[in-house]
Amino acid sequence: MLIRRFSEHLFEAGTDEAGRGCLAGPVTAAAVILPEHFENPLLNDSKQLSEKQRDGLRPFIEEHALCYSVTHLDHSVIDEINILNASIKAMQECVLKLNPAPLHIIVDGNRFKKVGNIPHNCIVKGDSKYLSIAAASVLAKTYRDAYMLKIHEEFPMYNWKQNKGYPTEEHRDAIRKYGVTKYHRMSFKLLPDQLELDFEEDMSFQGVRLKITR
């Protein structure tokens, strides 16, 4: 059974992110403050839920939360400041958008950076321990999945509607065949046998092609 709060504060926000390990698309974070008597027996770490369960929980969380926010940070930010810093930045931005402002923050994982003077605690596997972090994990995952479904229509050959940008063999085969898009994270190792990247503009492809130099 998930725990309601870590601190004594009613306005305690849980925050989490989705998409850290993807080759394409944004890292997406969410932050949620739940009311004191919030209950939902299904709510858990989003990774433990089916897509149907997550999609059903999203409107329930949005309706019953005191407040929530979601932030996408795209590949350009990830490539500039690295995925860890981008994940933290996305969560920080979510917290700053909450109204009412939280008096305490609990964060899934073991790394975070202070937001103003708000105290925070990092909790490893917090999304399977605390209700607000679990709620944030569901929102982050469902909003990111919806984003990937949208850009799948632009580049269907990568099958992002299925793999959501994660490094499946199918996704990597598509990179080998078609090159990379404007949504790929160029600071990531896109192919396991990648030794050197050579980029060239390809206006017909609306992005950048990847060449493998051996």
Automatic annotation (TrEMBL):
A divalent metal cation binds at D16, E17, D108. It catalyses: Endonucleolytic cleavage to 5'-phosphomonoester. GO terms for cellular component: cytoplasm; ribonuclease H2 complex. Its EC number is 3.1.26.4. Endonuclease that specifically degrades the RNA of RNA-DNA hybrids. HAMAP family: RNase_HII_B. This is Ribonuclease HII.
